[in-house]
């Protein structure tokens, strides 16, 4: 995924620099009418060729990643996440009897140094380097479950169960918010995911 992001960013920067170069060239070295009238066909051929190559370079790894993303079968944990107004519910299959709610802390409960609108009363704790399958849904309006630091985002759509696999080595706390405009208070439902050791995970939920 990281290599794919680098590839797409490189292609975008290349085309931006190419367009900027031609704009500067036309402004300072050529009369616009002369420039368009004499080499328009050549530029169109080059533009079409480079655009086609760029689309192929993006499409091939994108399709491969999509296939890997959708064909993930070796799942170690299944976590169900439900978006509600204005909080999240989660439960881990075969480990938890009741679901856990994640509410944003009120101003009265916050401490010095806390981030406004990003502090919660509970966190989802998961082990590092374990394949986790998120089953994301909602109970009312459309929500968006997102963890930007892990490159994860999926809409909790009415009538659908969205399945999202995650396997990461990034130990630490990852913060997300609902990125859908699901109502007047949609920014008040943050989500905290804490990635740690397997021992910490077992102690957190079993003891």
Mean pLDDT: 83
Oligomer: single chain
- Assign the CATH architecture of the largest domain: Sandwich
Give the biggest sheet.
Answer: 5 strands, mixed
What is the radius of gyration computed over CA atoms, rounded to a whole number of angstroms? 24 Å
Unreliable stretches covering 5 or more consecutive residues: none
Along the chain, the helix and strand elements come as HHEEEEEEEEEEH
- Per CATH, the superfamily of the largest domain is Cupredoxins -  blue copper proteins
Return the structural class: alpha+beta
Widest sheet, order of strands: 3-2-1-5-8
Q: What global shape is seen?
A: elongated
Number of strands: 10
Number of helices: 3
Q: CATH class of the largest domain, anyone?
A: Mainly Beta
% residues in beta strands? 25-35%
* CATH fold descriptor of the largest domain: Immunoglobulin-like
- Return the domain count: 2
**Fraction of helical residues:** 25-40%
Chain-wise SSE layout:
Elements lengths: L1 H28 L2 H39 L6 E8 L2 E6 L7 E3 L21 E4 L4 E7 L4 E5 L4 E5 L5 E5 L5 E6 L12 E7 L1 H9 L1
Parallel strand pairs: 1-5, 4-10
Antiparallel strand pairs: 1-2, 2-3, 5-8, 6-7, 9-10
């Amino acid at each position: 995924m990281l290599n794919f992001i680098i590839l797409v960013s490189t292609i975008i920067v290349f085309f931006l620099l190419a367009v900027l170069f031609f704009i500067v060239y036309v402004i300072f070295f050529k009369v616009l009418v002369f420039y368009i009238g004499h080499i328009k066909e050549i530029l169109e051929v080059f533009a079409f060729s480079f655009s086609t190559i760029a689309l192929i370079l993006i499409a091939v790894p994108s399709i491969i990643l999509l296939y890997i993303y959708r064909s993930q079968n070796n799942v170690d944990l299944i976590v169900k996440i439900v978006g509600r107004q204005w909080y999240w519910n989660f439960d881990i299959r075969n480990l938890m009897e009741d679901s856990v709610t994640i509410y944003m802390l009120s101003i009265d409960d916050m401490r010095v140094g806390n981030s406004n609108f990003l502090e919660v009363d509970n966190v989802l704790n998961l082990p590092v380097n374990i394949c986790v399958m998120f089953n994301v849904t909602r109970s009312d309006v459309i929500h968006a479950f997102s963890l930007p630091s892990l490159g994860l985002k999926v809409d909790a759509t009415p009538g659908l169960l969205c399945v999202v696999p995650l396997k990461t080595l990034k130990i630490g706390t990852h913060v997300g918010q609902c990125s859908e405009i699901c109502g007047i208070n949609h920014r008040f439902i943050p989500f905290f995911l804490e990635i740690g050791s397997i021992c910490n995970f077992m102690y957190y939920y079993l003891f």
